[in-house]
Write a structure and sequence with these properties.
The structure holds 2 protein chains of 2 kinds. By secondary structure, chain A is α/β, with parallel strands linked by helices. Chain A is built from 21 helices and 23 strands. The chains are: A alpha/beta, B alpha/beta. Chains A and B meet through helix 1, strand 9, helix 10, helix 12 and helix 13 of A and strand 2, helix 3, helix 5, helix 10 and helix 11 of B.
């Protein structure tokens, strides 16, 4: 039996929604990360609450990319595909590399299973044209045998099938099972019997691989190289967003308040924040999306770091209240975890299609700072900086993430809060007592914040236009014109870091431009092309409004520019509006799925060879 | 009685712009007086409204204040109170703002029992948009948007409040300053969401809608002032009373087969809201309109419960700052 050293491997676990594929994937990611591999994960789960068992729509997948060096995406195609039933094999086979090893539970390929998966013949391997190694293990039967003397009921026994598959994958990757055992004992701490049953099955899966050398020619080893020393954890984008908000509130010395209404795929932010009452975090699960934003505005007026989180149609419902925060100039962070639209669209899938809405989708002149997180772990910094801008400039700020970034995870080096920039809201000073009016501004153009409860600072805010000097209602045409310009200028003046160019910075023939959650895929495409000797660079944007000061200089420096985004050209349109004469190539996809690096490379190579 | 250090003047600001004779003027004056008598400092008071004629009220308050967007004042007040529970919060809305566009927030603020004082100025009309029917306009009501009369039934605010498990409901007539002040003070003292329905005429678009109780003489004849622990007696000469008959109420004349001991005694603190609902739904000409505090039942408030939970969970948990939070995760070290 050979052991092949790999720089990186991609494993995809797939099965029925109830088969525990997310858990198996999570454990494999964690043990890989714990031994120092870099990881990037992507859960791909169905929108149905519970599709019929064994059906094509009920297939749930979890892909993890494990690398000796840094990995930037969960990977295009997998080296190992686990398919726990016929439907999983049918829908997931497309993600397997030609060299992949495919593990199936042959017990779930009976005639009825094949029928549910709409196979036409009784040989699915042949029907799909599978040429790869297939380990056809009788997983269900072996799990039953393994747990026969435990007295567990059949249903509970079958729930352990995922651990058999995990054990087999761990054998394939020469993974130490100790870490998985610890993980399971902690997860099922309250049900030790269940923990032991899972571990028993896990070991059985490993032994099955070891004893049979299960019809494969080799196993894999991924060494660890070049990881930055430090403490790490595996963190999802939504969790990192929640942590960024917590960190910002602590740095600013404010109570964190979240008003939210559950909506996929943003709900985990509410779940995460509602756990942390010992940090003083208040979460209100509201009656609707509107109230989520409105309670947050009330909390902001009252003196908290106020946040509302949403996705999809939720952002439409919040728009009116977001505009109230614009005109009252109250700090507010709106987290929009973008998903497939329009309307209910593709609730569990990922897109970048809310960009123009959050920039412009409100009545009146409504300037709104917008940031976009570039990876699961980067959600932390993005949420922190969105909070800092909101509090220091007294403005609502939109933080765009997306389903891919929110649900995906990566290995995250634990930050030290003391290394993060200070957050200093423009509080009123005692000298302003009794003369304070709400639209007095500091040098940044931010109005001063008088938190209720202080004597001598009473004021009224509201949705009606106000006189910039007195704070009284005003319909004066010149005043309104002036206030519109002041609000716009304040946002335009926000200091944001320059956009970085990576790759062939000085002499690229093609500059790839993207924003937000596509960073990993665009970076990987750029890297691959550079390795092939092509001169390519990447400028990836996280600050979208205002744009970095060097945007025009960067975009005009290169012969060819392609804007690649998961929509029909919103960022390209925005850049064209901001930069006169900018006429890029475009790469657009709205499939609800992450970009595929090989397809990006192919498209970009075509642009390179195109004589314009 | 402890004298308050504030006067109505301390709460006044600006020059109201409502139509002359509008019920909002009367109400505003009563609110100023009630706040002065309550003695909470203006800077510890917040007045929050939505959109509509009555929602202009915060501009005339020398307190922290916010006029927000249509229908959302209950949600904004809720967030405010939870984040800053030391401030006394008044939410001002009308029948359109509170019960139409803001109906969802209205019932949920009540259900959660957030300690805010919700004032519902009910003139049964949209005034600011110049005369369309509202959710409290009676069936058949003729207005600019219902030239042939409405074909829908109105909400009764009390019914909605009780349906949302409301613990405090009171009613007053805008022109009745003592009655309004008493109700507002009781609402402020009640811990939890309190709803005060203020009956008022819109002199331009719906004049006379509450005429039967709009002046003192009318109220003497057509209203009953409910007081906890007192018998339900009313009339110009206190000659009538309410008794229970079957599952309903009945008006009887004292001395004609009934004496005071037969008359129902008002229990605003009863958990069971059945009788409170019967009282709140009474209308002329067969019944008097109920004024005063109809229901006043204590229950845990949302804001207190939120902060108690923060405290109790905090005592149980071992992490109290961000760096400690990080260490609650599965962590590995790369050396």
């Amino acid at each position: 039996m050979n052991i092949i050293d790999k720089q990186q491997v991609v494993v995809r676990f797939s099965g029925d929604s109830g088969d525990g594929m997310q858990l198996a994937g999570n454990i494999f990611s964690t043990i890989s990360a714990t031994i120092g591999n870099d990881i990037s994960t992507f859960p791909d789960y169905p929108a149905d609450i519970r599709a019929p068992q064994g059906s094509l729509t009920g297939v749930s997948g979890f892909q993890v990319h494990v690398g000796a060096n840094k990995v930037f995406t969960p990977g295009d195609k997998c080296d190992v595909l686990v398919a726990m039933n016929a439907a999983a094999l049918k829908t997931q086979y497309q993600f397997a590399r030609p060299t992949a090893c495919i593990i199936i539970d042959i017990d779930c390929f009976k005639a009825s299973d094949l029928e549910k998966a709409t196979f036409k013949t009784d040989n699915p391997i042949e029907e799909l044209g599978i040429k790869q190694d297939v380990i056809a293990a009788p997983i269900t039967q072996m799990v039953k045998d393994c747990l026969a003397d435990t007295g567990m009921d059949n249903k509970s026994v079958l729930k352990c099938r995922n651990m058999f598959a995990l054990g087999l994958v761990c054998w394939l990757f020469n993974r130490d099972l100790k870490l998985a055992e610890t993980f399971l004992r902690e997860k099922f701490a309250k049900k030790p019997q269940l923990a032991e049953a899972n571990i028993k099955v896990l070991l059985a899966g490993y032994d099955y691989g070891h004893n049979t050398h299960a019809s494969v020619y080799h196993t894999y080893r991924v060494e660890t190289k070049n990881a930055v020393p430090g403490k790490y954890m595996d963190i999802s984008g939504n969790k990192a967003t929640a942590y960024g908000l917590i960190a910002a509130a602590e740095k600013a010395g404010l109570q964190l308040f979240l008003g939210s209404y559950p909506i996929t795929p943003a709900t985990d932010i509410l779940h995460e924040l509602s756990k942390h009452k010992s940090l003083g975090v208040i979460t209100v699960q509201c009656e609707d999306e509107i109230s989520g934003c409105a309670t947050a505005i009330g909390a902001s007026f009252a003196g908290a770091l106020a946040v509302t989180s949403t996705s999809g149609p939720g952002i439409c419902l919040k728009s009116e209240a977001m505009n109230l925060a614009v005109i009252t100039e109250l700090p507010l962070v709106i987290v929009d975890v973008q998903r497939g639209g329009p309307s209910t669209g593709l609730p569990t899938k990922s897109e970048q299609t809310d960009l123009l809405q959050v920039l412009f989708g409100r009545n009146g002149e409504s300037p709104m700072p917008v940031l976009a997180a570039t990876s699961p772990t980067q959600c932390f910094d993005a949420a922190y900086m969105a909070s800092k801008i909101a509090l220091e400039y007294m403005t609502p700020v939109v933080l765009l993430t997306d389903a891919f970034v929110a649900n995906g995870s990566g290995a995250w080096r634990l930050p030290e809060l003391e290394n993060y920039p200070t957050i200093l809201p423009p509080y009123v000073s005692s000298e302003m007592k009794d003369s304070y009016t709400p639209y007095q501004r500091n040098s940044k153009g931010a109005r001063y914040w008088a938190i209720p409860g202080q004597e001598g600072f009473m004021h009224i805010l509201g949705g009606l236009e106000k006189d910039g000097n007195t704070g009284a209602i005003s319909t004066n045409p010149d005043n309104h014109d002036k206030m519109c310009r002041i609000r716009a200028q304040k946002v335009a003046n926000i200091e944001v870091p320059d956009v970085q160019v990576e790759g062939c910075v000085d002499d690229a023939d093609l500059l790839i431009v993207g924003f937000g959650g596509t960073y990993g895929h665009l970076y990987s495409a750029m890297q691959e092309m550079c390795q092939h000797g092509e001169r390519v660079a990447l400028a990836h944007f996280s600050y979208l409004n205002p744009l970095p000061k060097n945007t025009e200089e960067v975009l005009k420096k290169y012969k060819k520019v392609v804007v690649a985004e998961q929509n029909l050209g919103q960022f390209a349109a925005y850049l064209k509006m901001k930069i006169a004469g900018f006429d890029p190539y475009q790469f657009n996809e709205v499939k609800g799925q992450p970009f595929v690096v090989s397809e990006l490379v192919e498209a970009f190579e075509k642009i390179l060879s195109n004589k314009k | 009685m402890v004298m308050s250090e504030y006067t109505a003047k301390d709460f006044k600001k600006g020059q109201p712009r409502w139509c002359p004779g509008c019920g909002d003027h009367f109400f505003l004056a009563s609110l100023h007086k009630a706040l002065a008598e309550l003695g909470v400092a203006p800077h510890n008071t917040a007045v929050i409204s939505g959109i509509g004629c009555s929602s202009r009220l915060p501009y005339y308050m020398n307190t922290y204040a916010m006029q927000t967007i249509h229908g959302r004042a209950a949600a904004i007040s809720s967030g405010f109170k939870v984040a800053n529970p030391d401030i006394m919060v008044w939410q001002i809305s009308g029948d359109g703002d509170g019960l139409a566009i803001g109906g969802n927030h209205f019932i949920h603020a009540i259900r959660r029992n957030i300690d805010i004082n919700i004032v519902l100025l009910n003139n049964r009309i949209y005034g600011l948009t110049k005369g369309q029917y509202s959710p409290t306009s009676p069936r058949g009501f003729v207005s600019k948007s219902s030239p042939y009369g409405t074909v829908e039934d109105p909400f009764c605010p009390a019914e909605l409040c009780f349906g949302a498990r409301g613990r405090f409901f009171a009613r007053a007539v805008a022109t009745d300053a003592p009655g309004t002040i008493a109700v507002l003070k009781a609402a402020a003292k009640h811990k939890g969401a309190s709803v005060c329905e203020i009956l008022q005429n819109c002199v331009i678009f719906n004049d006379g809608t509450h005429d039967s109780v709009y002046n003192k003489e009318g109220r003497a004849k057509n209203a009953i002032y409910l007081e906890h622990g007192k018998p339900m007696i009313f009339g110009e000469n206190k000659e009538y009373g309410l008794v229970q008959e079957g599952f309903g109420l009945k008006v009887v004349k004292l001395g004609e087969g009934y004496s005071e001991k037969d008359i129902l005694v008002h229990n605003a603190h009863s958990e069971d809201n059945t009788l409170h609902l019967k009282l709140a739904l009474m209308e002329g000409p067969d019944f008097p309109i109920a004024l005063g505090v109809i229901r006043d039942v204590e229950a845990p408030t949302y804001n207190d419960s939120v902060h108690e939970q923060l405290k109790s969970v905090s005592e149980q948990k071992s992490y109290h700052n961000f760096q400690e939070l990080l260490l609650t995760n599965d962590i590995w070290e790369v050396k």
